[in-house]
Each structure stands twice: as C-alpha cells, then as structure tokens.
Design brief:
Largest sheet: 6 strands, mixed
Oligomer: single chain
Structural class: alpha+beta
CATH superfamily of the largest domain: P-loop containing nucleotide triphosphate hydrolases
Order of helices and strands: EEEHEEEHHHEHEHEEHHEEEEEEEEEEH
Number of domains: 2
Strand content: 25-35%
Shape: globular
Number of strands: 20
Length: 387
Amino acid sequence: MATLQIKQVVKRFDDTEVLKGIDLEVNDREFVVFVGPSGCGKSTLLRIIAGLESATSGDLLIDGERINEVGPADRGLAMVFQSYALYPHMTVEDNMGFSLRLAGVGKQARRDKVLEAARILQLEPLLDRKPKALSGGQRQRVAIGRAIVRNPSIFLFDEPLSNLDAALRVQMRIELARLHEELDATMIYVTHDQIEAMTMADKIVVLQGGVVEQVGSPMELYHHPCNRFVAGFIGSPKMNFLPVTAQAVSASGVRVALPGGGTSEVAVNGEEAQAGDALELGIRPEHLLLDDQGPLSGQIKVIERLGGQTSLYVEMDDGIITITADGDVTYRVNERVNFGFEPSRAHLFDAQGLALASLARHPLSGLVRQDSRERSDNSSERPEGSP
C-alpha cells in the first residue's frame, strides 16, 4: 500500500497554533490511531493529510514523494467521516460506486468493484436498499465500502463510530480490525476513545495541545507511559495517582513514603530523582490488591458490580481512587479496606509530570519508543498548563 512521513508540520489559524511541529512516520500496512482529548489537533492533522487543510509549514510525503501541493483527489487517499454522508435517493450500490462513476469508470468495472467491496463488508443482500432502510452500522459499512472501491493507498477514518450506540461500536471495531487484516491496508484512524485505540491499533499516537506526547504500541503505552498525561489517558478505568515523597534513591529503584505512613520501593531509575523529592505514584486500578495487611487504606464510597469484576471507589485523604477487584467480593459501602500493590506495576512521576524510567519489562510491551527524559527536551513546545 503506502508509507506516510510527516515532517515538522505546523498549523496556525490566525494567531492560534493548533499543531506545533508534528514529526511522525506511518509504515506500510500499519493501523495507526491518533488519540487525544477534544481540541488536541488530531482531526486537524488528519485533514492536512487528506488535503482538506493546508499545513502552515512542514512537509508530508507518501512513499517518499512530497504531496503538500497535491490536491485531495490526486493523493490516492480515501476518507471515512463521522457522518455517513450517503445520498438518500441512491441505492447502496449506487452510493458505493458514485465516486467511480464521476471518475469515468465503466459500468461493468464499477459493478465488479462494488460487488467485491460488498462481499468484504457483508453488504451483498443490501445493495438494492436505500439508506433510510439501513441501520446505523450498515450505513457506516456503506461509507467504508465507498472508500474501498477507490482502492486508495491509505484509508483515513475520522471518528467513524461516534454516531453508533455502544453495542454497534463494539461490533464495528471488530469489523474494522477484520477489514484491516483482509485488505492488508495502511489505515489512519482518529478517535477520542482510548478503548478504540487500544483494541484496534498497531501503533497509537497520543496528542495533547498540538504536541505528540508519545508514540508506541498499545501495550507499550499501557506499561511504559512517558508522562502523567499519557498514563491517565491510556487505560480504563484510568490510572490512580497518589502524592508520595522519595526517601531513598538508587539505580535499581526509589523508596517512597506512602500516604498513611507505609513505604514501598518502586522499580524505576532512581538516578532521575533525589531523596526528599515530591513525586506522584501511579497505579492502575487492576494492579491494586485488596489485602488486610496492605499499606494503604480508605473507605468505600461506591461499588459498581459488573459481573466478572467489581469496581470499588475508595476515599482516601488525597481523594477517591479506584480498585478493580473480583466480581464476587463481598465488601459494602462505607466499609474500610486495606490494599497494596506490586512495586513492579507502579509508576513514578516527577514535579513536571514526566515518568521516571521504569526498570520493569512486560512480555507484550517491548521497548519504550521515547524515553521520558528525552521527551522533556521538547518541554518548551508544550502548551501552557499541559503535563
């Protein structure tokens, strides 16, 4: 299919800089997801790739060829939008083949391409229907089929599942993953939903305030977030954060004083901290362990029973934290609980929100793509108030 290189792309609207020097490579046949909160610049970046917006500065290259001045129709890309944008008076077949018709493709060749796309998307029984007779998921598949028939070098998806209900979103995530496998295509997908990013991506690009915070596989970002923002954004329920103080540091770890008087040694590079530093301890809800002898304690305020697991919302002096426990736990609201954690599963963040390099390695995470100290070299590019 195709590779994409983004080199120092900046985008300004009047005096507002929404993209602040983006550098990124998308490899052939990768499924890359841009994820971040509203206003982070992810959709603007996708529109620049598509040619619907122009970059203020910087370069875009497809297979090594600069495309900044190439029009959207000539870039060899196909985009699927959040809205289905189907013609209500046309059948599914006509909607899917309309762009080919405009391009002057013959009737039989057009039909062959539409039938092949319909087979891939399981739309063959629906070709004679009009959009009003389709469900939301079926309409989105038609919009995807309209992109497939163009045989693009890169597929672009701009929050395509946002209009679907929860059950349909799960189904469409599965279908998009299957589609990527069957087409063996390069795909770039924009979403604010980190669950979509984690379940579909080969590579996730986390953006915040027009800056790329971190790039890596889903499990790299889960196990080795480079800063507090990424740590809190990736993972559901989100990571818990507790204020701690460094007591002793070494190359093999940092011993911290925990809220409530306990201590723990966290497996991070202690050369990046000093005794007495105020730090934040990050622990994912699924890595907190209920233990009558645990060094942490609090009062249960809310219990959410989800069948196979239960979420406990526990109030401590520094706020509410979340514990993911077995579905059959018998705790009750207002009961006090003690809990602890495995030090190899914990994270530490400094006063700037940067992660101290973890010394733990996990089988699915590989290596960190960008060291947290290296990221701090670009701290001047961060928007005011970002982590």
